[in-house]
Design brief:
This protein has five helices and no strands. It has 178 residues and is an all-alpha fold.
Length: 178
C-alpha cells in the first residue's frame, strides 16, 4: 500500500472497497429481481394456459345462469337483491376470463414485452395491450370479441350494483314524516 502512495496511485481504502461491494451487490439484487419477475411472468403464463379452458366453461355456465335464471329473478322485488348479487359475482368470472385471455393473447402477439407493459399499467393493462396487439396484427374479429367481453364484464358489474341498490331502496322506503 505504501508503494501505491509513493508511486502517486491512490490507495484503496476500506470505504472505497465498501462502496464497490455495495454497487456490485446492488447490481446482483437488480438482476435477481428481473430474473424473479420473468420467472413469475413465465409461471403465470404456464398457469394461464392450464386454467383458461376451465374458465371458458365456467364463463359459459355463468352466462347461461345470468340470462336464464338471474335476469328473470331481477323482475321481482323480493328476488332483485339476490339477482343483482349473482350478476355482480358473474361479472368477476367474466373479468377473470377476459384477463387470462388477454394475457395469453398479448404474449402470443407481442411476447413478454407486451405482458410486462400491461402489468406495469396496473395489471389490468393487459386487456388494452391485447386489444392493441390484435388491432396492429389485423385480427379484427378478436378486437371485437375482446371489446364485447369487456362490455359484458362491466355491463354485468354495473347492472348488478344497480339491482342491489334498487332492491335496497325498496327495502328501506324514505321517511316522509314531518
Amino acid at each position: 500500500m505504501l508503494a501505491n502512495v509513493v508511486a502517486g496511485r491512490p490507495a484503496l481504502t476500506g470505504d472505497k472497497l465498501k462502496s464497490v461491494g455495495s454497487f456490485v451487490l446492488g447490481i446482483c439484487i437488480f438482476v435477481g429481481a428481473i430474473v424473479l419477475a420473468v420467472m413469475l411472468v413465465k409461471g403465470g403464463l404456464w398457469l394461464s394456459e392450464r386454467v383458461y379452458p376451465w374458465l371458458v366453461v365456467l364463463t359459459a355456465i355463468s352466462l347461461f345462469v345470468v340470462i336464464l335464471v338471474l335476469l328473470p329473478l331481477a323482475i321481482f322485488r323480493r328476488t332483485r337483491a339476490f339477482a343483482g348479487g349473482g350478476i355482480y359475482f358473474a361479472s368477476f368470472v367474466f373479468g377473470l376470463t377476459l384477463w387470462v385471455w388477454s394475457l395469453l393473447t398479448s404474449y402470443a402477439l407481442w411476447g413478454i414485452g407486451g405482458i410486462v407493459v400491461g402489468l406495469l399499467l396496473g395489471g389490468i393493462g393487459v386487456v388494452p395491450i391485447a386489444i392493441l396487439a390484435s388491432l396492429f396484427h389485423g385480427l379484427w374479429s378478436m378486437v371485437g370479441e375482446l371489446l364485447l367481453v369487456t362490455a359484458i364484464t362491466f355491463g354485468a358489474r354495473f347492472f348488478g350494483i344497480y339491482l342491489m341498490t334498487k332492491a335496497e331502496d325498496y327495502d328501506h322506503p324514505p321517511d316522509l314524516s314531518p
